[in-house]
Amino acid sequence: MALQIASLNSGSNGNCYYVGNDIDAVLIDAGISCRETENRMRQKGLDISKVRAIFISHEHSDHVKGVARIADKYQIPVFITEKTAQRGPFLVKHLSQHFCAEEIIQVESLTVVAFAKKHDADDPHSFIISHNGVTVGVITDIGTACDQVVKYFKQCHAVFLESNYDDEMLQNGSYPYYLKTRITSDTGHLSNKQALELFLNHRPHFMTHVFLSHLSKDNNSPEIAASFFAPHAQEVQIIIASRFEASEVYTIYEPNNIGSIRKLVMKPVQLGLFEI
Ligand SMILES: [Zn+2]
Ligand SMILES: [Zn+2]
User: Fold this and answer.
1) pLDDT of 265 over the 60 cut
2) Is the pLDDT of residue 19 over 60?
3) Domain spans of the chain?
4) Which residues surround ligand 2, an ion (CB under 5 A)?
5) In degrees rounded to 5, what are phi and psi of residue 217?
């Protein structure tokens, strides 16, 4: 069975990522309103009643804004670390469950593993979600591609990978010095260049899709981020996760089927606003 994945929104204005199979799904982060999450899922044919859990990566508002309302309305359990939960009144208490890094969490038919990441939050984590040999990573809000990121990136058939800023745009832009330093620090965000380096050095041969995610409004553009990856993507489909709308739903197949399926779905490389 394959995994269906989509970005419902990606960026400093809100993050929410959908990963599911035919019967179960999880949301990673809930940083857009409940209504917007419902609308976007409906538009893309995704069924919110399949969502068995919401995982929270860290306490920044672009990752938690909608969680209380969504969890309460649909009575969905929210997995959050104890430390992160203490950082805000954004949760319905009886629905929250704590997790630890590297713990294998079974959510019905989906397996989720969290791992610690470097970011300027209290207890930030990234996630991989697996089912039947297919693994999808959600790796955003990372200051650096640390050993943990590398270890889990290497397991992914598809990944939502942060590609936050373009070095030149950031350095020449209007942000104050302290903010530039914070963004580029090891606990800030990942640049296009750093994301590409991770991809070039550690991409597993079975990776089929990369969603460039959490692009900065002021210090990046979809065209620039895409242009970094275009010459190197080869057979990997590069998708820009938008700050404004949900992506299409992509199906990630079992590794054994990739060879035959690729022949059917391979399209010529398109250079466009949201996809290459
Ligand atoms: Zn963020
Ligand atoms: Zn953050």
Assistant:
1) no
2) yes
3) 3-265
4) 60, 141
5) -70, -40
**pLDDT category, 25, cuts 50, 70, 90?**
very high
Please tell me the distance between residue 26's alpha carbon and the centre of ligand 1 in angstroms.
Answer: 18
Q: Residue 264: helix, strand or coil by DSSP?
A: helix
Query: Residue 33 pLDDT more than 80?
Result: yes
Predicted TM-score (pTM) of the model is 0.92
Rounded to the nearest angstrom, the distance between the alpha carbon of 213 and the centre of ligand 1 is 10
Question: The domain 3-265 belongs to what CATH superfamily?
Answer: Ribonuclease Z/Hydroxyacylglutathione hydrolase-like (3.60.15.10)
3-class DSSP string for 134-198: EEEEEECCCCCCCHHHHHHHCCCCEEEEECCECHHHHHHCCCCHHHHHHHHCCCCCCEHHHHHHH
How far is Cα 15 from Cα 215, in angstroms, rounded to an integer? 11
Listed residues: CB within 5 A of ion ligand 1: 62, 141
Question: What pLDDT, on a 0 to 100 scale, did the predictor assign at position 1?
Answer: 73
Share of the chain above pLDDT 70, in %: 91
∠ Cα 146 244 65 (to 5°): 65
Nearest ligand atom owner, CA of 58: 2
- DSSP assignment letter at 92: -
**Contact yes or no for 31/15 (Cβ under 8 A):** yes
Considering every ligand atom shown, identify the ligand nearest to the alpha carbon of residue 29 and give its number: 1
Residue 268 clears pLDDT 70, i.e. is over it: no
